[in-house]
Specification:
Length: 428
């Protein structure tokens, strides 16, 4: 149906202008003919039955939630072969843009977090896990931190559901806001996953820094799994101790050590005493430049203080995943290394500290490079003067360069060793 040259969906929604586009579809500003209200209509880009199932689930979940901090559901269905979802039209900017341009004081950060926690309390009460809580999915209505809307339920699901709508090789969530269990690609996620993500958002609003930032998604996931961000008080010294403790609990690697759900976070935020008003911090450079480890001095890094790691990009080939995993586990066990599998197929192995660990890691790296000639292996180290974040950034960059090299020049060696480990091995 067309009205004055405009497309009309389901004889109800007149599409006025395109407002945005994403992997799942295109969003339009539209007019609802039943009440003349402005609404947002998402049209599905239907490429696979999987997408239709996910789209239908998003609509059903939104229809079941009624909360002032959750985008309001209006209607969904199919019109002339086009699947659509109509929601309230929100005037405002994303929290991501708000934090970059306006920033937030401690008071404003807590107000923002209360809004998101309230939205999560509502969906958690229904057993729904959002799975993609991040600043880009929070709208600050008319620039008012007290008026926020949680949006984009495209990958939300009930905590009792299996992972049937998640295809192998598709990253579900956003790396910098993923809980450790999500970064590992675990099939069952509960509401504590959203609590971790909200902890990342609150940390960012309070400090002006992303809690887990790196140049590659692999490095971000490794940080989420194995390191903690600096305490909030290092960048926000005026923060009350009880608020700093809450953020630390929300970012705990162990799900059962976090506040149990959005309602529990909201209760903790409501119980806070008086909060300082300023200053306002904007999100800019998330971390200081990576420190460079000097190895050209007369005394190399002391290998006794060194922690060694391997990052392995597993090849995309027809060999059964179980067989690859068995080979990986066998090599890791032979050389005394702990294995952490990331959800994008990259594997992180950590050796014991000290000289013995360096040598074992080098042997494991050689064995892995031979086992997966069409993959890539990066061996890197964390010295006493190094942070885990700096080390894993270096290792992830090394892995990416090695992966690209072996992709375009298969005859090249698929193993790279960073200068820190090289110096330690030379000093042996």
């Amino acid at each position: 149906m067309v009205v004055a040259g405009a497309q009309v969906i389901s004889q109800r929604f007149v599409l006025l202008s395109q407002a945005g586009a994403g992997g799942m579809g295109t969003v339009y500003r539209a007019r609802d003919l039943t009440n003349n209200a402005t609404v947002a209509v998402k049209l599905l880009s239907l490429g696979r039955p999987f997408d239709l199932a996910r789209f239908g689930r998003e609509a059903a979940l939104l229809a079941s939630v009624h909360h002032p901090n959750v985008v309001e559901y209006i209607a969904h269905g199919e019109s002339d072969g086009v699947h659509y979802l109509a929601q309230e039209w929100i005037t405002g900017t994303t929290l991501a843009a708000h934090l970059r341009t306006v920033g937030a004081t401690v008071q404003e950060a807590v107000v923002l977090a209360r809004g998101v926690a309230g939205a999560l309390a509502a969906i958690h009460a229904l057993g729904v896990v959002h799975r993609d809580v991040k600043p880009a999915n929070v709208i600050v209505v008319d620039g008012d931190p007290a008026r926020i809307k949680l949006v984009d339920f495209g990958i939300a699901r009930h905590s009792t559901q299996s992972r049937v709508l998640t295809r192998t090789g598709i990253v579900v969530g956003t790396p910098a806001y993923m809980a450790p269990e999500q970064a590992r690609g675990e099939s069952q996620l509960d509401v504590s996953t959203d609590v971790f993500a909200l902890g990342c958002v609150l940390y960012e609003a309070l400090t002006g820094r992303i809690a887990f930032a790196a140049s590659t998604a692999t490095a971000v996931r490794a940080k989420v799994l194995l390191s903690d961000p600096p305490k909030v008080s290092e960048y926000c010294p005026e923060i009350p101790a009880e608020l700093g403790a809450l953020v630390a609990e929300m970012l705990d690697k162990r799900p059962d050590h976090r506040p149990r759900d959005g309602a529990a976070v909201l209760a903790r935020l409501d119980a806070l005493g008086p909060l300082p008003a300023g200053p306002s911090r904007r999100v800019g450079v998330s971390e200081p430049p990576t420190k460079q480890i000097g190895i050209t001095t007369t005394r190399p890094q002391d290998p006794v203080e060194l922690q060694s790691y391997l990052l392995v990009a597993m090849p995309d080939d027809p060999e059964p995943e179980a067989a690859r995993a068995a080979s990986l586990d066998k090599i890791a066990a032979e050389h005394g290394m702990n294995v952490h599998v990331l959800d994008d197929g990259v594997v992180l192995l950590a050796a014991q500290p000290g000289q013995t660990g360096v040598v074992k890691a080098a042997h494991a790296a050689t064995a892995l490079a031979q086992e997966i000639p069409d993959g890539a292996v990066a061996l890197f180290g964390r010295a006493k003067t190094d942070s885990f974040g700096d080390a894993v950034d270096r290792g992830a960059d090394l892995l990416e360069r090695t992966r690209i090299t072996t992709l375009f020049a298969p005859e090249e060696v698929n193993l790279a060793i960073d200068e820190v480990v090289a110096a330690a091995l030379k000093a042996k």
